[in-house]
Amino acid sequence: MKQSISTKNAPAAIGPYSQAIKAGDFVFLSGQLGINPETGEFVSTAVAEQTEQVFKNIRAVLAEAGLSLEQVVKTTVFLADIGDFATVNEVYAGHFTAPYPARSAFAVKTLPKNALVEIEVIACNTESFSA
Asked: If residue 87 lies in a helix (H) or strand (E), which one and from where to where?
């Protein structure tokens, strides 16, 4: 059974999808952009600031699901410009500790609303890993 997760502390979905879906012990977050949920606008035109806001949005959706970044097991990073990889990676590294989640990163032609970065995550209730 799947359950939709939604919070006003992250930007509303801009299409026919959920901010996140809980399925069993896993929560699958839709890609988050660097949009301030209060204004509906990007926080900046700089990739570092957009990436920081992406993580604020991810944390908000995870919190609504009763989870945190420590329970993220997989991320996918989408970049409008692969030249921004080092900057995004530096911000990203400040939000995770070892063991780090598995990750994929891609440059794409265009992101929604012409964002510079989008990140989606999969998290798991770590209690399910207990022996």
From this structure: helix 85-93
Tell me the backbone φ, ψ of residue 69, rounded to 5 degrees.
-60, -30
- CATH architecture assignment, domain 2-129: 2-Layer Sandwich (3.30)
Residue type, 46: A
- The per-residue pLDDT for range 86-118, each reduced to its tens digit, is 999 999 999 999 999 999 999 999 999 999 999
Cα separation, 118 vs 35, in Å, equals 10
List pLDDT tens digits, range 26-44: 999 999 999 999 999 999 9
Q: Is the whole model's pTM more than 0.90, yes or no?
A: yes
Q: Which residues pair with 27 in a beta bridge?
A: 22, 123
